Here is the input.
Amino acid sequence: MRTVTCYCGWFLGLILLVGLLPAHSVGAATRIESDTIFRVLERDTAAEEDATVLPVYEYLQIDTGELDDYGVSFHLYGWGRADLADSEYFEDPAAGEVLYGYVEYRADANQFGLRLGRQHVFEGVANETVDGLRLNGNLGDYFSLSVYGGQPVGLNAVQGSDGDSIVGGRLAHHNGSKYEIGVSFKASENDGETAEEMMGVDLALALPEDIRLSGYSAYNQESEDWAEQSWELRVPVGHFVLKPYYQHFSYEDYFATGANAVSVFQDRAASGEELTAYGLDALWQYDQNWTIGGKVKQHDYDQADSAQTYSVLAAWQGEELTQYGAEIGRTAAGDSVGNDYTLVRLYGYNEAMGGRLGVDFVSADLLLAQYDEEIYGKDSSLFLSLGGGKRFMGDALSVKLSGDYSQDAYFDEDVRGTLTVSYNFAQ
Here is the structure.
């Protein structure tokens, strides 16, 4: 927490410094997005049964500088939480985290880019939050390179950040929109010991008839075996779009990537289980409003029983974000109670209320699961959410009130309320 606090203070200082500079010296753009969420619920705590819990969350994003052009810009996004009822439900009464906070420089020459600070790196085998430096740019007309290095945020939980490090990068060859193939690498250390060494190859290929193949393979250099294979075809046929796909995961190579690695899935890694999944998504675009489709997926486990999931869906898309839809699906596995069930979902969002019933937008979501066998004496679970809101200040400010009700095998009844105040500022 001390590291997060110091980092947050450092970056907030930069933001304040930028705010004090003349606007023409750092560019004209500033965007601020704030979501303040008040919740009310009841939970058993160490001190009281059915204690009232009143957490308030703040999600804040600030972007300022040359946001739409080459130059310098600053970016910050984080959250904080406090329990107004001091209910002792949370381990810490107050918590928060800087999800990212970095300074960025972009130049036209070779599309050069530099990021310094806390950032999320998502390319090739990298899906990491890093405190450090990332550089990227083109190497001529057909190649691009990105490299990064610093401290991996996810390893801070084990004996702090001393001795933690990560380096990686991706080299890509491309030919316009015809294809791009990349080779990536990352290596991380936790407390001075190797935590992970992964290599990967990814491909995006345009085939005749607008068919596209994309995918990704990751190889664990420590265990010397493949950790993941994920490949997908996109095949348009008239108003249909077919998406067959194939995935394979080796839990030992995917999760246990080093003797000192940090993973909440260590028990799965120890099992040595392997999962092969394949299936097909089929969507029919009936017209500009209606989409109808179906999904089929097979899960084959090396040790556990196989499972199948399939569903049909229909969705209607109106103006802007207005949409209604329904989906019904079936999952069949059978090796433990609760794995065989039918799932039904109905949802809707209307953004064109125009002040009717005193609101500008409403939302509704219903989820019903019917189990083949009872779980703790119940053969079904239900979740229902209803909400509505209103906009102010030329849509810059919105206020939404929603209520959730659920009952399942683990809660006889649970009622929650949420008030969300969202503010968007841009200049």
User: Anything to note?
Assistant: The first strand starts at residue 29 and ends at 43. The two ends are 33 Å apart (CA to CA). Residues 1-8, 19-26 have pLDDT under 50 and may be disordered. Residues 2-20 form the longest helix (19 residues).
